[in-house]
Design brief:
- The chain is mainly alpha-helical and about 120 residues long.
- The chain has two domains: about 1-60, no CATH class; about 65-115.
- Helices cover about 65% and strands about 10% of the residues.
- The chain contains five helices and two strands, in the order H-E-E-H-H-H-H.
- The protein has helices spanning about 1-10, 25-35, 40-60, 65-75, 85-110; strands at about 15-20, 20-25.
- A two-stranded antiparallel sheet has the order 1-2.
- A hairpin with a 2-residue loop joins strand 1 and strand 2.
- Helix 4 packs across helix 5.
- It is elongated, with a radius of gyration of 22 Å.
Length: about 120
């Protein structure tokens, strides 16, 4: 999959405006223009392909943010959730949804980092 992404990226047309002129280059041509060596271009494209394929995995595996899921998380976290005042429940729901959003935003990078 990554090889296909890299090939698409190499040939992807980018439009730039420089000094009021529109320039159209492939991504590979743009890297060549700024003087990156071929091996560094390949490294950059590999990194970009990894990131893009991670995005695809993330959208398939991300935690849902719907109300029922958030309520279930809140009940698991606080067993007295159903007995709380509305304001307390809403605050806990908000906190849970913020944690879900933070986790979803960082899932693509979880496999790339080594924790000590």
């Amino acid at each position: 999959m990554k090889k296909e992404i890299i090939e698409v990226l190499k040939n992807y047309k980018c439009n730039y405006i420089r000094d009021d002129q529109q320039i159209s280059l492939t991504l590979k041509e743009a890297f060549d223009l700024i003087g990156l060596p071929d091996d560094q271009i390949d490294d950059e494209l590999e990194l970009l392909a990894t990131e893009l394929s991670g995005q695809r995995e993330r959208s398939a595996g991300e935690l849902p943010e719907d109300e029922k899921f958030i309520d279930n998380i809140c009940i698991s976290f606080r067993h007295d959730f159903g007995l709380m005042e509305d304001e307390q429940r809403n605050r806990l729901r908000f906190d849970a949804s913020e944690w879900i959003r933070a986790i979803n935003n960082n899932l693509p990078f979880a496999s790339q980092q080594k924790y000590e």
